[in-house]
Each structure stands twice: as structure tokens, then as C-alpha cells.
Amino acid sequence: MGCSIMTKPKIEPEPFDEKCISHVSEIKVDPGIFVQENTNKFQEIYRVGSNLGSGAFGEVKTCFHRDTGQKRAVKIFRKDLISRGGKRQALDQEIEILKQLDHPNIVRVYEFFEDERRLYIVMEYCSGGELYAEIVKRKSFNEVHAAQIMQQILSAVSYMHDNFIIHRDLKPENILLEEQNETMNIKLIDFGAAIVNRDSDHYKNAMGTSYYVAPEVLTGEYNEKCDMWSCGVISYILLSGQPPFEGRNDTEILGKVKIGKFDMESDPWPRISSEAKNFISRLLCPNDERLSASQAIQHPWITQRAYRTLPSSDIIQEVLLKLNNFHSSNKLRDAVYTFITTQCISVQDTKLLREVFRNLDRDGDGKISRHELLQTYTKTVGAEQAAIDVDRVMKEVDTDNNGYINYSEFLKATLDIRKVMSTENLKAAFRMFDKDGNGSISADELRKVLEGGASSSEQVWNDIIDQVDQNGDGEIDLQEFEDIVLSKLS
């Protein structure tokens, strides 16, 4: 199922940001600012493990962080190969796109390294392998499991489209199973073909894999709904074990894609529900009739079949209390919490909270709105108090001020902070800021980490130093760093 029709991807320029940070409160803390190039040698930080796969430009291996022991995956690219044909630019673009994405079903990128011969991209490790391999093993999925998988894919796609990102190569080979178990938590990977489409442009260059590519990609202009056609093909394969458009080669496959006719009469389709068949038909149809991701996730087949075991009411109440009690009172502390939450915490520590997040995210778009939070709070404290509580939660937890609680913001506010703020994690956070490794953090080092793509006033970073610097030497040492981060925990 891997025939490719990809051409050279269009490289999108980063939007120019004229904003100048003139006050500490204007610093935007999000997970992407911590995805940076590590200037150390990769082998000094990670021990390389087993091989996970290989391709034309390099290989994917497991790796283990030498200080923390955390198991991750690393994509290793040979620079002599990626320097040709714009591949290096495409990889840089992939990193930039992944830095923007904060969703429980999109693979997380941690950091990257570069030496004379290779580029290393360190990412989240998923032990369950490719969805494609699971399809081959199982032949097909029952409707509940298929709907659960599609619900997660659609949530990730809805989130991407809301953030103006088109994946353009959705297929089971680019979907990983977090673990091999019945809940089937999945992660979208490989954003090498993805583009940023902030201006609602239509694209003409062919991009994708033959079995999954939308007909409008082949015959004319296309937009983000090309991803929805791919979702329709994946759904068809999950339920039947076969692609809807088959052929002996790319030419035959793409010819059938252009015609757009597919079989829902032969075995196993008589045993499959009318809702499932309607769902697929609403995706494998002309672009102007095709469901959007936000519409597809509300289709009856998804809402009725993709049920999951809900967290207990006691757990939800505990999470709501943590949200209510969270305060982002100090920018440096907030940055440290964000770094540790997104860079140091394991999947095992977030499993339960991820299910609560999904429960609160009623429309499945990968973020929690004020309205969604209000619905849950109203059930427990009444409408008037709920409005007060939710406004306070949004003010404190929505630290990037985008009007929603993103996944990492939710985790940051609800994880057990005493467990999170271990000595090991605090030292890892300190090392992130202490760029020159001299044992203290200067104003310039703070700026390099937290400034992001904006410009800033030097006074902003001096102000942060002044808030923390207890001995008056103009820098933050490890003890001062720990004191400010842990000050609210005692």
C-alpha cells in the first residue's frame, strides 16, 4: 500500500512577526519553544538502540536518554543525501510544523542534533508499531475499534486544519500505535509532505500515496479536504482489509481513483452497518460534497460506535479541582512546568489525564473551549459558580492566550506537580536554560530559550533575573532556580 506519487514539496515561509516583547507578561510559553537544536553531540546525550526502519535518506532507531533513561525514537538522516532536491528544506519545515502541534494523537518532537555527516530528529517512541502492520495481522477491525481509531485520526486532522496545516500523506504507514492494546491509542507521524495554508490557497502539485490520494490532487486544484479523502480510504481498509481502489500499478490505481467508484456490495460489506457505509461515502466523494474533519467527527457512526471507558466521576472532580487551583503566577515557573510536562513526562504518567482531556473535549477538535469547560463545571457547582470558576481557569491555564486550553496546558495544570518536580526533572530544565553549561543562567540565555520568533527588550530578561536572583550576582544559579520553581509547593 505504499506506492508514492510525491513531487517536490512547496516550502512555506514562516510568517513574519513584527511583535516586540516589551514586558514579561507578553512572553508566550508553548511547547514548541523548547524544541531546539542541541549543540552537544548526539551520542553524548543518547545511547542508540535497535533499528525501527530505514528509507532512502536514513534510518529510524530507538534511543535512550543517558541521564533520564527515557526511551525515544530518532530519525537519522545522511546530510549528503538530504542536501539534494530540497529535502533539507523539507526536513526543516517538518520540524517547524511539528513544533506548532500540541495534540494527544500527534507524535511529539523533542529536540534535534546536527553534526558534519548527519541530522538527528528525536521524537516520541511508540511501541505498537505501524497501524499498517496491525491491519495486515488482523485482516480487518470490528466497527467499534475502527471507529475509535478514526475518531482519534479525525481529532488530529481537525486540530491540524484549524491550525492551517494540511498533512497530504495520511495512510496507515504514517499512523503509529502507542501500545499494542485494545484501546488503540494512535499517533500521526511523518509531516514531511505537510504544508501551512494560512491563506486558503489551492494547490496543484501532486502529493501523496496512490492508494490514498484524492482525485482532485490528480486532476486540478485541491485544499485541506484532500486529507478527508485519505481518511475515507483508511476507514474502508480498517473495515474490509482491502483498499477501495486497487490495481497492479500506480497507473491502474490512480485511474480508479479518478473515476471514484468503489465496492460496498461484496463481502464483508453486507455485514457492515449502514452508518459506517454512509460515513465512508461522505468522504469518498467530490471535494465540494465531502465532510470536513469537524463534521466527520460528529457523524453518527463515530459518535455512536467510538465509545470509550469514561474516567470515574471522582477522577473528573479531582482534575477539575486541580484546574481550579492552578496559578501561572511566574513566567519562569510556567516555562519550567511546560518544559517538564512536554519533555520529561512519560506516556504512562499521562494516560488517565489524556482520557479526561478527551472527555472534556466534547467536539473532538483537540482543545478545550470555555463552553466545553462550562458544561462540565455546571454539572457540579451550578451555572453561576461555574461561570466564575471557568473564567478563572481560562485566565490561569490558557497561558498562550489563544482562547482554548491546549493539551500541554491541560497536563501542566493537572499533573501531580510534586511528582513532576523531581530533582532529576528540575536539573534537566536547568540544563535547557544554562546553554553554556557554566552552572548559572544569564539574561541572554533566558532570551535564547523564551524569545521565540519575536524580538524583545533586554530589560524583559533582566526583570526575570531580578525576580529570582537572591545573591545579587545578576544570574540564576541552580539553588535560586529550584527555589522559585518550588516556592508554591511547600
From TrEMBL:
<comment type="similarity">
    <text>Belongs to the protein kinase superfamily. Ser/Thr protein kinase family. CDPK subfamily.</text>
</comment>
<feature type="binding site">
    <location>
        <position position="75"/>
    </location>
    <ligand>
        <name>ATP</name>
    </ligand>
</feature>
<keyword id="KW-0106">Calcium</keyword>
<feature type="domain" description="EF-hand">
    <location>
        <begin position="385"/>
        <end position="420"/>
    </location>
</feature>
<dbReference type="InterPro" id="IPR017441">
    <property type="entry name" value="Protein_kinase_ATP_BS"/>
</dbReference>
<protein>
    <recommendedName>
        <fullName>non-specific serine/threonine protein kinase</fullName>
        <ecNumber>2.7.11.1</ecNumber>
    </recommendedName>
</protein>
<dbReference type="InterPro" id="IPR011009">
    <property type="entry name" value="Kinase-like_dom_sf"/>
</dbReference>
<dbReference type="InterPro" id="IPR050205">
    <property type="entry name" value="CDPK_Ser/Thr_kinases"/>
</dbReference>
<keyword id="KW-0723">Serine/threonine-protein kinase</keyword>
<comment type="subunit">
    <text>Monomer.</text>
</comment>
<keyword id="KW-0547">Nucleotide-binding</keyword>
<dbReference type="InterPro" id="IPR018247">
    <property type="entry name" value="EF_Hand_1_Ca_BS"/>
</dbReference>
<dbReference type="Pfam" id="PF13499">
    <property type="entry name" value="EF-hand_7"/>
</dbReference>
<dbReference type="Pfam" id="PF00069">
    <property type="entry name" value="Pkinase"/>
</dbReference>
<feature type="domain" description="EF-hand">
    <location>
        <begin position="421"/>
        <end position="456"/>
    </location>
</feature>
<dbReference type="InterPro" id="IPR002048">
    <property type="entry name" value="EF_hand_dom"/>
</dbReference>
<feature type="domain" description="Protein kinase">
    <location>
        <begin position="46"/>
        <end position="302"/>
    </location>
</feature>
<dbReference type="InterPro" id="IPR008271">
    <property type="entry name" value="Ser/Thr_kinase_AS"/>
</dbReference>
<keyword id="KW-0677">Repeat</keyword>
<keyword id="KW-0067">ATP-binding</keyword>
<keyword id="KW-0418">Kinase</keyword>
<keyword id="KW-0808">Transferase</keyword>
<dbReference type="GO" id="GO:0005509">
    <property type="term" value="F:calcium ion binding"/>
</dbReference>
<dbReference type="InterPro" id="IPR000719">
    <property type="entry name" value="Prot_kinase_dom"/>
</dbReference>
<dbReference type="InterPro" id="IPR011992">
    <property type="entry name" value="EF-hand-dom_pair"/>
</dbReference>
<dbReference type="GO" id="GO:0004674">
    <property type="term" value="F:protein serine/threonine kinase activity"/>
</dbReference>
<feature type="domain" description="EF-hand">
    <location>
        <begin position="457"/>
        <end position="490"/>
    </location>
</feature>
<dbReference type="GO" id="GO:0005524">
    <property type="term" value="F:ATP binding"/>
</dbReference>
<feature type="domain" description="EF-hand">
    <location>
        <begin position="348"/>
        <end position="383"/>
    </location>
</feature>
<keyword id="KW-0479">Metal-binding</keyword>
